[in-house]
Design a protein that fits this description.
The structure holds two protein chains of two kinds.
Chain A lengths: L1 E2 L4 E8 L8 H12 L4 H21 L2 E8 L3 E9 L6 H4 L9 H5 L7 H8 L2 E7 L3 E9 L7
Antiparallel strand pairs in A: 1-2, 2-3, 3-4, 4-6, 5-6
Chain B lengths: L6 E2 H7 L3 E4 L7 E2 L2 E3 L3 H7 L5 E4 L4 H9 L4 E4 L7 H10 L3 E3 L4 H10 L14
Parallel strand pairs in B: 4-5, 5-6, 6-7
Antiparallel strand pairs in B: 1-3, 2-7
Helix pairs in contact in B: 3-4
Classes of the chains: A alpha+beta, B alpha/beta.
Chain lengths: 149, 127
């Protein structure tokens, strides 16, 4: 953890296939945001985006680093994974498109809602991917009430 | 159409003949609306803080999802019960867990007929 008067930063490591711990990083992020007094409606949006991103890593990637960075104006979540990447991002962004296995569906995920859910909860959302290497997500949520969704 | 009403967890427990897995001290919690799904991505998409979540998904992800969206409590349907990890995490987060033998359709129907609205707040037109 890094923090100064105006900025806070936390780093989490997520492992692919680690279903027993899936969601713990996002649970911690929620607790951190509660501790620093972020508005509850922002916390829910950040927690949902983070949780969907975390589940994607557990389901599809080998490992990832998730970074939370909070400034007075914005909340940033950056997720960089090492994994198969996404061949067709436009297709992956469509609700209902999924390459999930039965095991993933038994966990209650894999319905093709993850990336659209992340985008819906973000004010800014960027995704880039290199097939065979990995995927990077950048999620920004404005803390200023005049800019938020 | 039933008149919209709030229900306490105790009333919900009695209506659904449910067993309390954890949260026996929280039965006076007031529930204003509910939603049911086995699909956690759907819950993350439609869930709102304060929801009563009905689900047949009994692993720890149900509890983690409920915590992420600030759900008030979970009712497991079809007699399901969460695993030990789920129960432990629910206790830590203060999320009451109930289990009813009714299936999803019947459990939701009983609550709706009693006046508990769905998460969307939309109610069907009178016929």
């Amino acid at each position: 953890m890094m923090s100064n008067e105006n900025e806070l930063s936390h780093r989490f490591e997520i492992n692919g296939r680690d279903f027993s711990n899936a969601g713990r990083a996002s649970t911690s992020i929620k607790e951190i945001l509660q501790e620093i007094g972020i508005d509850s409606s922002i916390i829910v949006r950040a927690a949902i985006a983070s949780y969907e991103a975390e589940m994607n890593v557990v389901m599809y990637a080998h490992r990832a680093v998730l970074t939370l960075n909070v400034t007075p104006e914005k909340l940033h979540l950056k997720l960089e994974d090492e994994g198969p990447g996404i061949e067709n991002i436009d297709l992956a962004m469509k609700e209902g498109f999924s390459t999930a296995t039965d095991e993933m569906r038994e966990m209650g995920f894999g319905a093709g809602m993850g990336l659209p859910n992340i985008k819906r909860n973000a004010d800014e959302f960027e995704i880039s991917s290199t097939p065979g290497k990995g995927t990077t997500l950048k999620i920004t949520i404005c803390l200023d009430s005049t800019q938020k969704k | 159409m039933p008149k919209k009403t709030k229900m306490t967890l105790k009333e919900i427990k009695e209506l659904l003949q449910a067993e309390v897995i954890t949260g026996i001290d929280s039965l006076d919690l007031e529930i204003e609306f509910a939603g049911g799904s086995d699909l956690m991505s759907d819950v993350l998409a439609f869930g709102k803080p304060g929801i009563l979540l009905l689900t047949g998904l009994s692993n720890a992800q149900s509890v983690r999802t409920a915590n992420i969206i600030d759900a008030k409590a979970i009712v497991y349907v079809r007699g399901k019960k969460p695993d030990k990890m789920g129960i432990k995490e629910a206790r830590e987060k203060g999320i009451p867990l109930l289990s009813t033998k009714y299936m999803m359709f019947t459990a939701c129907g009983l609550l709706f007929c009693h006046g508990l609205p769905g998460v969307s707040g939309l109610t069907p037109k009178k016929r």
